């Protein structure tokens, strides 16, 4: 289970160090074999490779004639890259994905249970402000009656 938010720095080559608290779990779960892809919110998604496979299969089972489905396929599967965590626990974010997510020096890695989101620091702050400003945020029907 991946949770928590961590501020990270990308080096000049576009590498970032996966936090130590997640490295061991990723080694056990997938031997450091990961998939990095684009998300419609302009962040990146980082999945252990075995967790990504059913998502890709589901995406590819959708009709390519449906405009919304094919747009999601292009984004999620089209941008997907197989990456390996190196011996130092770093991953390389390709220039294409760095450009897509506007990643420069600082980034935010946010655990989402089965995977991570990777945000540029500016985009992370902006989406947080939008979420906080929307104090009367409507919950999905599945969470009706839910409280913290």
Quick take:
The chain has 148 residues and is an alpha+beta fold. It is 36% helix and 25% strand.
- In the predicted model, the low-confidence regions spanning at least 5 consecutive residues are none
Using the CA coordinates, give the radius of gyration.
16 Å
In one word, what is the shape? globular
Find the CATH topology: Chemotaxis protein chec
Q: Strand arrangement, largest sheet?
A: 1-7-8-4-3-5
Structural domain tally: 1
How does the SSE layout of this entry go?
Layout: E1 5-9, E2 15-17, H1 20-30, E3 33-38, E4 44-48, H2 49-60, H3 67-77, E5 81-84, E6 90-92, H4 95-100, E7 106-111, E8 116-120, H5 121-133
Antiparallel strand pairs: 1-7, 2-6, 3-4, 3-5, 4-8, 7-8
Keywords:
148 residues; alpha+beta; Chemotaxis protein chec
Task: Describe it.
It is globular and about 45 Å long. It has one domain (5-134): Chemotaxis protein chec, CATH 3.40.1550.20. It starts with a strand and ends in a 15-residue tail after the last helix. The chain has a 6-stranded antiparallel sheet. The chain has 5 helices and 8 strands, in the order E-E-H-E-E-H-H-E-E-H-E-E-H. The mean pLDDT is 93. It has helices at 20-30, 49-60, 67-77, 95-100, 121-133, and strands at residues 5-9, 15-17, 33-38, 44-48, 81-84, 90-92, 106-111, 116-120. By secondary structure, it is an alpha+beta fold.
């Amino acid at each position: 289970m991946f949770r928590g938010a961590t501020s990270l720095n990308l080096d000049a080559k576009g590498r970032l160090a996966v936090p130590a608290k997640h490295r061991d779990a990723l080694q056990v779960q997938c031997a450091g074999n990961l998939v990095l892809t684009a998300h419609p919110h302009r962040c990146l998604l980082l999945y252990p490779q075995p967790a990504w496979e059913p998502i890709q299969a589901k995406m590819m089972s959708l009709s390519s004639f449906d405009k919304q489905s094919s747009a999601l396929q292009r984004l999620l599967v089209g941008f997907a890259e197989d990456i390996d965590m190196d011996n130092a626990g770093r991953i390389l974010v390709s220039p294409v994905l760095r450009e897509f997510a506007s990643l420069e020096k600082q980034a935010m890695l946010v655990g989402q249970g089965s995977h991570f989101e990777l945000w540029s620091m500016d985009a992370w702050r902006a989406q947080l402000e939008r979420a906080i400003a929307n104090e009367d945020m409507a919950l999905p029907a599945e969470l009706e009656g839910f409280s913290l």
